Amino acid sequence: MPLFGNAFSPKKTPPRKSASLSNLHTLDRSTREIELGVEYGAPVMNIGGHSLTFEDGQWISESAGNVSGKELQRLKKRNLQLEEENNLLKLKIEVLFDMLSETEVKTHLIQKELEDMKNNTRRRK
Of 57, 74, 104, 113, which one's alpha carbon is 20 to 30 angstroms from that of 32? Predict the structure, then answer.
């Protein structure tokens, strides 16, 4: 038996009635089509005079000055592709320089061996 008694015994909370606050799931199909339209389309919102559209998992600005949001996204993607290609070409050039250096060293060693052989044959005569 506890010294001070069982002073803390909270009451059980009742279960929640509904997880969703939206009543759209209660509407029948025809009412939903009237409310939302047959083609839902991409979500669009206007904030501070800028129109944003949600496409392919990103918000794209439709009013970005002279360049449209889609064009800006395309240019960013192309820029990334060109940067990756540039990095690959730099790597290839580095490999080619390494190969050239290795070939130059081998050529130098072969020329030295050839000169040594010529000098050895002259001494024997």
Answer: 57
